[in-house]
Design goal:
By secondary structure, the protein is an alpha/beta fold. The protein has 17 helices and 13 strands. It has 2 domains: about 180 residues, glycerate kinase, domain 1 (3-Layer(aba) Sandwich), CATH 3.40.1480.10; about 230 residues, 3-Layer(aba) Sandwich (Rossmann fold), CATH 3.40.50.
Length: about 425
Amino acid sequence: MNLSDVKDLARTLFLEGVRAADPEAAVKRELSEKPLNATPNGRLFIVAYGKAACAMMDQALKHTPKGQRVKAIAITNYENARDIQGCQVFASGHPLPDENGIKAGKEVMRLLETADKNDEVLCLISGGGSALLPTPRAGITLGDKVAINEALLSEGFDISQMNAVRQQLSVLKGGGLLDLAYPATVRSLIISDVVGDDIRVIASGPTAPALDRCAKTTAFLKSPSVQSKLQSAGRKILTSPRIVRPLIADNAIICSNQHSLRAIANAAADWAPLIVPDPLTGDVKAAAQQIVDLARTTHFGNRKLLIWGGETTVTLRGRGRGGRNQELAIHVANLAKELPGNWVFLSGGTDGRDGPTDAAGGIVTAGTIARAQADNLNVVAALKDNDSYRILESAGDLLKTDATGTNVADVQLMFLFAI
Protein backbone atom coordinates (compact mmCIF):
# COMPACT_ATOMS: atom_id res chain seq x y z
CA MET A 1 0.00 0.00 0.00
CA ASN A 2 1.53 3.34 -1.08
CA LEU A 3 1.09 6.82 0.37
CA SER A 4 -1.66 7.74 -2.07
CA ASP A 5 -3.66 4.64 -1.11
CA VAL A 6 -3.33 5.42 2.59
CA LYS A 7 -4.42 9.04 2.06
CA ASP A 8 -7.50 7.76 0.24
CA LEU A 9 -8.17 5.34 3.09
CA ALA A 10 -7.80 8.15 5.63
CA ARG A 11 -10.48 10.17 3.86
CA THR A 12 -12.76 7.12 3.58
CA LEU A 13 -12.46 6.33 7.28
CA PHE A 14 -13.04 9.96 8.23
CA LEU A 15 -16.30 9.93 6.25
CA GLU A 16 -17.23 6.66 7.96
CA GLY A 17 -16.92 8.52 11.26
CA VAL A 18 -19.12 11.31 9.92
CA ARG A 19 -21.77 8.79 8.85
CA ALA A 20 -21.78 7.31 12.36
CA ALA A 21 -22.84 10.75 13.63
CA ASP A 22 -25.85 10.89 11.31
CA PRO A 23 -28.38 13.11 13.10
CA GLU A 24 -31.50 11.59 11.55
CA ALA A 25 -30.49 8.10 12.60
CA ALA A 26 -29.76 9.31 16.14
CA VAL A 27 -33.15 11.04 16.49
CA LYS A 28 -34.99 8.07 14.98
CA ARG A 29 -33.31 5.70 17.41
CA GLU A 30 -34.12 7.87 20.43
CA LEU A 31 -37.75 8.64 19.55
CA SER A 32 -38.44 5.03 18.61
CA GLU A 33 -37.20 3.87 22.01
CA LYS A 34 -38.84 6.74 23.92
CA PRO A 35 -41.75 8.16 21.86
CA LEU A 36 -43.06 11.69 22.21
CA ASN A 37 -45.97 12.18 24.59
CA ALA A 38 -49.35 13.14 23.17
CA THR A 39 -50.71 16.38 24.64
CA PRO A 40 -54.40 16.51 23.63
CA ASN A 41 -55.01 19.61 25.76
CA GLY A 42 -51.84 21.36 24.70
CA ARG A 43 -49.33 21.92 21.95
CA LEU A 44 -45.96 20.44 21.00
CA PHE A 45 -43.29 23.02 20.25
CA ILE A 46 -40.22 21.68 18.44
CA VAL A 47 -37.19 23.96 18.41
CA ALA A 48 -34.08 22.73 16.57
CA TYR A 49 -30.86 24.66 16.33
CA GLY A 50 -27.30 23.90 15.36
CA LYS A 51 -25.59 22.53 12.28
CA ALA A 52 -27.69 19.35 12.37
CA ALA A 53 -30.99 21.17 12.99
CA CYS A 54 -32.68 20.41 9.67
CA ALA A 55 -31.83 16.72 9.71
CA MET A 56 -32.94 16.36 13.32
CA MET A 57 -36.18 18.26 12.67
CA ASP A 58 -36.97 16.19 9.59
CA GLN A 59 -36.87 13.01 11.63
CA ALA A 60 -38.62 14.41 14.72
CA LEU A 61 -41.64 15.53 12.69
CA LYS A 62 -42.10 11.92 11.56
CA HIS A 63 -42.54 10.89 15.21
CA THR A 64 -45.15 13.42 16.34
CA PRO A 65 -48.33 11.83 17.76
CA LYS A 66 -51.29 11.66 15.38
CA GLY A 67 -53.53 14.72 15.62
CA GLN A 68 -51.01 16.62 17.74
CA ARG A 69 -50.92 20.40 17.36
CA VAL A 70 -47.32 21.19 16.41
CA LYS A 71 -45.31 24.38 15.95
CA ALA A 72 -41.76 23.85 14.66
CA ILE A 73 -38.79 26.19 14.16
CA ALA A 74 -35.30 25.21 12.95
CA ILE A 75 -32.20 27.41 12.86
CA THR A 76 -29.05 26.26 11.10
CA ASN A 77 -26.05 27.54 9.14
CA TYR A 78 -26.42 28.68 5.54
CA GLU A 79 -24.78 25.57 4.02
CA ASN A 80 -27.18 23.17 5.76
CA ALA A 81 -30.43 25.15 5.45
CA ARG A 82 -33.29 23.63 3.43
CA ASP A 83 -37.09 23.76 3.32
CA ILE A 84 -38.95 21.42 5.67
CA GLN A 85 -42.68 20.91 5.39
CA GLY A 86 -44.44 21.97 8.56
CA CYS A 87 -41.44 23.86 9.91
CA GLN A 88 -40.21 27.45 9.76
CA VAL A 89 -36.50 27.34 8.83
CA PHE A 90 -34.01 30.13 9.48
CA ALA A 91 -30.45 30.27 8.15
CA SER A 92 -27.96 32.32 10.15
CA GLY A 93 -24.26 33.03 10.62
CA HIS A 94 -21.52 30.78 11.96
CA PRO A 95 -18.96 31.05 13.55
CA LEU A 96 -19.92 34.69 14.03
CA PRO A 97 -23.60 35.54 14.68
CA ASP A 98 -25.55 37.80 12.32
CA GLU A 99 -28.87 39.64 12.02
CA ASN A 100 -30.66 36.58 10.66
CA GLY A 101 -29.79 34.77 13.87
CA ILE A 102 -31.27 37.68 15.84
CA LYS A 103 -34.52 37.37 13.86
CA ALA A 104 -34.62 33.63 14.49
CA GLY A 105 -33.98 34.15 18.19
CA LYS A 106 -36.83 36.61 18.51
CA GLU A 107 -39.18 34.15 16.81
CA VAL A 108 -38.15 31.36 19.19
CA MET A 109 -38.60 33.64 22.19
CA ARG A 110 -42.06 34.72 21.01
CA LEU A 111 -43.08 31.08 20.64
CA LEU A 112 -41.77 29.92 24.02
CA GLU A 113 -43.31 32.85 25.86
CA THR A 114 -46.77 31.47 24.90
CA ALA A 115 -46.08 28.05 26.47
CA ASP A 116 -48.26 26.90 29.35
CA LYS A 117 -48.45 23.86 31.64
CA ASN A 118 -50.32 21.79 29.04
CA ASP A 119 -47.62 22.21 26.41
CA GLU A 120 -44.47 20.23 25.72
CA VAL A 121 -41.25 21.56 24.21
CA LEU A 122 -38.86 19.31 22.29
CA CYS A 123 -35.42 20.87 21.80
CA LEU A 124 -33.12 19.39 19.17
CA ILE A 125 -29.65 20.73 19.91
CA SER A 126 -26.41 20.32 17.96
CA GLY A 127 -23.02 21.96 17.61
CA GLY A 128 -22.87 25.55 16.38
CA GLY A 129 -26.00 26.55 18.25
CA SER A 130 -24.26 29.24 20.29
CA ALA A 131 -23.54 31.40 17.25
CA LEU A 132 -26.58 30.42 15.18
CA LEU A 133 -29.18 31.52 17.74
CA PRO A 134 -27.96 34.74 19.37
CA THR A 135 -30.52 36.32 21.69
CA PRO A 136 -28.76 39.27 23.32
CA ARG A 137 -29.87 40.42 26.74
CA ALA A 138 -31.04 44.00 27.17
CA GLY A 139 -28.02 46.28 26.98
CA ILE A 140 -26.07 43.92 24.68
CA THR A 141 -26.09 44.44 20.91
CA LEU A 142 -25.22 42.04 18.11
CA GLY A 143 -22.11 44.15 17.52
CA ASP A 144 -21.10 43.58 21.15
CA LYS A 145 -21.53 39.83 20.75
CA VAL A 146 -19.52 39.73 17.52
CA ALA A 147 -16.69 41.76 19.06
CA ILE A 148 -16.56 39.53 22.14
CA ASN A 149 -16.71 36.34 20.04
CA GLU A 150 -13.83 37.57 17.90
CA ALA A 151 -11.83 38.38 21.03
CA LEU A 152 -12.52 34.92 22.49
CA LEU A 153 -11.44 33.22 19.29
CA SER A 154 -8.28 35.29 18.97
CA GLU A 155 -7.27 34.59 22.58
CA GLY A 156 -7.45 30.81 22.10
CA PHE A 157 -10.31 30.18 24.57
CA ASP A 158 -11.59 26.61 24.51
CA ILE A 159 -15.28 25.89 23.93
CA SER A 160 -16.15 25.61 27.64
CA GLN A 161 -14.50 28.93 28.42
CA MET A 162 -16.12 30.61 25.41
CA ASN A 163 -19.58 29.37 26.32
CA ALA A 164 -19.21 30.43 29.95
CA VAL A 165 -18.89 33.96 28.56
CA ARG A 166 -21.62 33.59 25.91
CA GLN A 167 -24.11 32.45 28.53
CA GLN A 168 -23.81 35.83 30.24
CA LEU A 169 -24.79 37.63 27.03
CA SER A 170 -27.85 35.64 25.99
CA VAL A 171 -31.47 35.21 27.04
CA LEU A 172 -31.65 31.56 25.96
CA LYS A 173 -28.25 30.19 26.98
CA GLY A 174 -27.23 28.77 30.35
CA GLY A 175 -30.72 27.41 31.12
CA GLY A 176 -32.44 30.47 29.70
CA LEU A 177 -34.55 28.53 27.20
CA LEU A 178 -35.82 26.29 29.99
CA ASP A 179 -36.65 29.34 32.07
CA LEU A 180 -38.49 31.03 29.18
CA ALA A 181 -40.56 27.91 28.38
CA TYR A 182 -41.75 27.46 32.00
CA PRO A 183 -44.23 25.98 32.98
CA ALA A 184 -44.18 23.71 29.91
CA THR A 185 -42.37 20.35 30.09
CA VAL A 186 -39.04 20.45 28.22
CA ARG A 187 -37.18 17.53 26.65
CA SER A 188 -33.86 17.91 24.81
CA LEU A 189 -32.16 15.56 22.36
CA ILE A 190 -28.54 16.61 22.07
CA ILE A 191 -25.78 15.84 19.57
CA SER A 192 -22.54 16.65 21.35
CA ASP A 193 -19.73 18.55 19.65
CA VAL A 194 -17.65 19.02 22.81
CA VAL A 195 -15.11 16.90 24.62
CA GLY A 196 -16.66 15.22 27.64
CA ASP A 197 -20.26 15.80 26.43
CA ASP A 198 -21.04 18.40 29.10
CA ILE A 199 -24.62 19.53 28.38
CA ARG A 200 -23.84 22.91 29.97
CA VAL A 201 -21.33 23.53 27.18
CA ILE A 202 -23.08 22.18 24.07
CA ALA A 203 -24.70 25.18 22.29
CA SER A 204 -24.08 27.06 25.56
CA GLY A 205 -26.50 24.86 27.51
CA PRO A 206 -29.97 26.27 26.74
CA THR A 207 -31.67 23.59 28.87
CA ALA A 208 -28.91 23.06 31.46
CA PRO A 209 -27.53 25.01 34.42
CA ALA A 210 -25.07 27.78 33.61
CA LEU A 211 -21.35 27.10 33.67
CA ASP A 212 -19.25 28.33 36.55
CA ARG A 213 -16.87 31.11 35.66
CA CYS A 214 -13.22 30.16 35.83
CA ALA A 215 -10.46 32.64 36.61
CA LYS A 216 -9.66 33.04 32.90
CA THR A 217 -13.22 33.96 31.90
CA THR A 218 -13.64 36.32 34.86
CA ALA A 219 -10.42 38.13 33.98
CA PHE A 220 -11.51 38.31 30.34
CA LEU A 221 -14.90 39.84 31.19
CA LYS A 222 -13.25 42.48 33.38
CA SER A 223 -10.39 43.27 31.02
CA PRO A 224 -10.15 46.87 29.74
CA SER A 225 -10.14 45.66 26.11
CA VAL A 226 -13.58 44.06 26.55
CA GLN A 227 -15.04 46.77 28.79
CA SER A 228 -14.08 49.49 26.31
CA LYS A 229 -16.22 47.85 23.60
CA LEU A 230 -19.44 47.98 25.62
CA GLN A 231 -21.92 50.54 26.81
CA SER A 232 -22.45 50.83 30.57
CA ALA A 233 -25.44 48.44 30.56
CA GLY A 234 -23.36 45.80 28.82
CA ARG A 235 -20.49 46.20 31.26
CA LYS A 236 -22.84 45.73 34.20
CA ILE A 237 -24.33 42.56 32.67
CA LEU A 238 -20.94 40.98 32.07
CA THR A 239 -19.61 41.62 35.55
CA SER A 240 -22.78 40.59 37.44
CA PRO A 241 -23.91 36.99 37.94
CA ARG A 242 -26.82 35.87 35.75
CA ILE A 243 -29.69 34.23 37.60
CA VAL A 244 -32.31 31.87 36.13
CA ARG A 245 -34.77 29.58 37.90
CA PRO A 246 -33.22 26.21 38.89
CA LEU A 247 -35.46 24.14 36.58
CA ILE A 248 -34.80 20.63 35.25
CA ALA A 249 -35.24 19.33 31.70
CA ASP A 250 -35.12 15.78 30.34
CA ASN A 251 -31.74 16.05 28.60
CA ALA A 252 -30.31 13.15 26.56
CA ILE A 253 -27.05 12.92 24.62
CA ILE A 254 -27.99 10.91 21.51
CA CYS A 255 -24.71 11.11 19.57
CA SER A 256 -21.13 12.13 20.30
CA ASN A 257 -17.52 12.03 19.16
CA GLN A 258 -17.08 8.54 20.61
CA HIS A 259 -19.68 7.14 18.19
CA SER A 260 -17.50 8.32 15.31
CA LEU A 261 -14.25 7.01 16.78
CA ARG A 262 -15.71 3.56 17.37
CA ALA A 263 -17.11 3.43 13.84
CA ILE A 264 -13.69 4.28 12.41
CA ALA A 265 -11.99 1.63 14.54
CA ASN A 266 -14.51 -1.01 13.45
CA ALA A 267 -14.03 -0.13 9.78
CA ALA A 268 -10.22 -0.28 10.11
CA ALA A 269 -9.93 -3.59 11.98
CA ASP A 270 -7.04 -4.76 9.76
CA TRP A 271 -4.97 -1.74 10.86
CA ALA A 272 -4.85 -2.78 14.55
CA PRO A 273 -6.68 0.43 15.54
CA LEU A 274 -6.18 2.08 18.91
CA ILE A 275 -8.57 4.77 20.17
CA VAL A 276 -6.40 6.96 22.38
CA PRO A 277 -8.38 7.49 25.61
CA ASP A 278 -7.18 11.03 26.30
CA PRO A 279 -8.85 13.52 23.91
CA LEU A 280 -6.79 16.12 22.08
CA THR A 281 -7.43 19.53 23.62
CA GLY A 282 -5.54 22.74 24.17
CA ASP A 283 -3.09 24.51 21.90
CA VAL A 284 -2.43 22.88 18.51
CA LYS A 285 1.34 22.95 18.98
CA ALA A 286 1.16 20.95 22.21
CA ALA A 287 -1.40 18.58 20.68
CA ALA A 288 0.87 17.98 17.67
CA GLN A 289 3.73 17.09 20.01
CA GLN A 290 1.49 14.58 21.84
CA ILE A 291 0.59 12.93 18.54
CA VAL A 292 4.17 12.63 17.32
CA ASP A 293 5.46 11.47 20.71
CA LEU A 294 2.95 8.63 20.78
CA ALA A 295 3.65 7.72 17.17
CA ARG A 296 7.39 7.59 17.91
CA THR A 297 6.95 5.19 20.84
CA THR A 298 4.29 2.97 19.27
CA HIS A 299 5.58 -0.41 18.18
CA PHE A 300 3.84 -1.88 15.17
CA GLY A 301 4.36 -4.69 12.70
CA ASN A 302 3.08 -4.02 9.21
CA ARG A 303 0.55 -1.32 10.09
CA LYS A 304 -1.07 0.60 12.95
CA LEU A 305 -3.79 3.23 13.24
CA LEU A 306 -3.92 5.68 16.17
CA ILE A 307 -7.28 7.44 16.59
CA TRP A 308 -8.03 10.61 18.56
CA GLY A 309 -11.06 12.79 19.09
CA GLY A 310 -11.27 16.21 20.65
CA GLU A 311 -11.06 19.90 19.93
CA THR A 312 -7.88 21.93 19.97
CA THR A 313 -7.43 25.70 20.05
CA VAL A 314 -5.44 28.21 17.99
CA THR A 315 -4.21 31.60 19.15
CA LEU A 316 -4.73 33.95 16.23
CA ARG A 317 -1.77 36.23 15.55
CA GLY A 318 -2.06 36.72 11.80
CA ARG A 319 -4.62 37.42 9.11
CA GLY A 320 -4.36 34.23 7.07
CA ARG A 321 -7.04 31.63 6.41
CA GLY A 322 -7.31 28.33 8.20
CA GLY A 323 -8.62 26.52 11.24
CA ARG A 324 -7.48 24.39 14.15
CA ASN A 325 -7.46 21.13 12.15
CA GLN A 326 -5.44 22.59 9.29
CA GLU A 327 -2.94 24.17 11.64
CA LEU A 328 -2.66 20.97 13.68
CA ALA A 329 -1.98 18.97 10.53
CA ILE A 330 0.87 21.29 9.54
CA HIS A 331 2.47 21.17 12.99
CA VAL A 332 2.35 17.37 12.85
CA ALA A 333 3.88 17.43 9.36
CA ASN A 334 6.73 19.56 10.70
CA LEU A 335 7.37 17.45 13.79
CA ALA A 336 6.92 14.03 12.20
CA LYS A 337 9.34 14.42 9.30
CA GLU A 338 11.94 12.33 11.09
CA LEU A 339 9.66 9.52 12.25
CA PRO A 340 10.95 6.08 11.26
CA GLY A 341 8.83 4.29 8.68
CA ASN A 342 5.94 5.73 6.72
CA TRP A 343 3.03 7.72 8.03
CA VAL A 344 -0.08 9.64 7.00
CA PHE A 345 -1.93 12.00 9.34
CA LEU A 346 -5.48 13.37 9.04
CA SER A 347 -7.16 16.00 11.17
CA GLY A 348 -10.70 17.05 10.32
CA GLY A 349 -13.83 18.66 11.69
CA THR A 350 -16.85 16.39 11.41
CA ASP A 351 -19.01 19.31 10.30
CA GLY A 352 -16.90 19.64 7.14
CA ARG A 353 -15.89 23.18 8.02
CA ASP A 354 -12.62 24.08 9.73
CA GLY A 355 -12.61 27.73 10.71
CA PRO A 356 -13.96 30.18 8.12
CA THR A 357 -12.86 28.01 5.17
CA ASP A 358 -14.33 25.46 2.74
CA ALA A 359 -12.07 22.68 4.06
CA ALA A 360 -12.66 20.21 6.89
CA GLY A 361 -8.94 19.96 7.68
CA GLY A 362 -5.85 18.37 6.17
CA ILE A 363 -4.26 15.04 5.26
CA VAL A 364 -0.46 15.32 5.50
CA THR A 365 2.62 13.16 4.89
CA ALA A 366 6.36 13.49 5.35
CA GLY A 367 6.44 15.32 2.02
CA THR A 368 3.82 17.99 2.77
CA ILE A 369 6.19 20.77 3.82
CA ALA A 370 8.55 20.12 0.90
CA ARG A 371 5.64 20.22 -1.59
CA ALA A 372 4.48 23.56 -0.22
CA GLN A 373 8.01 24.98 -0.36
CA ALA A 374 8.37 23.75 -3.93
CA ASP A 375 5.42 26.02 -4.74
CA ASN A 376 7.58 28.99 -3.63
CA LEU A 377 5.75 29.32 -0.32
CA ASN A 378 7.49 30.44 2.87
CA VAL A 379 5.91 27.90 5.22
CA VAL A 380 7.29 29.47 8.41
CA ALA A 381 5.94 32.91 7.51
CA ALA A 382 2.59 31.51 6.40
CA LEU A 383 2.15 29.55 9.63
CA LYS A 384 3.06 32.62 11.67
CA ASP A 385 0.27 34.42 9.78
CA ASN A 386 -2.18 31.58 10.61
CA ASP A 387 -2.35 30.87 6.87
CA SER A 388 -2.57 27.09 7.16
CA TYR A 389 -5.09 26.82 4.33
CA ARG A 390 -2.60 28.21 1.81
CA ILE A 391 0.14 25.81 2.96
CA LEU A 392 -2.09 22.75 2.58
CA GLU A 393 -3.53 24.01 -0.69
CA SER A 394 -0.02 24.44 -2.12
CA ALA A 395 0.89 20.92 -0.99
CA GLY A 396 -2.34 19.42 -2.36
CA ASP A 397 -3.22 18.17 1.13
CA LEU A 398 -6.50 19.89 2.02
CA LEU A 399 -9.34 17.67 3.27
CA LYS A 400 -12.58 18.82 1.62
CA THR A 401 -15.96 17.18 2.21
CA ASP A 402 -18.57 19.95 1.88
CA ALA A 403 -20.84 20.67 4.85
CA THR A 404 -21.81 17.34 6.44
CA GLY A 405 -24.98 18.32 8.30
CA THR A 406 -23.65 17.08 11.62
CA ASN A 407 -21.01 18.07 14.17
CA VAL A 408 -19.38 15.88 16.82
CA ALA A 409 -16.09 17.76 17.25
CA ASP A 410 -12.86 16.68 15.50
CA VAL A 411 -11.19 13.44 14.46
CA GLN A 412 -7.45 12.75 14.13
CA LEU A 413 -5.98 9.66 12.47
CA MET A 414 -2.30 8.66 12.39
CA PHE A 415 -1.43 5.76 10.07
CA LEU A 416 1.92 4.05 10.69
CA PHE A 417 2.92 1.49 8.09
CA ALA A 418 5.58 -0.19 5.98
CA ILE A 419 5.32 -0.05 2.19
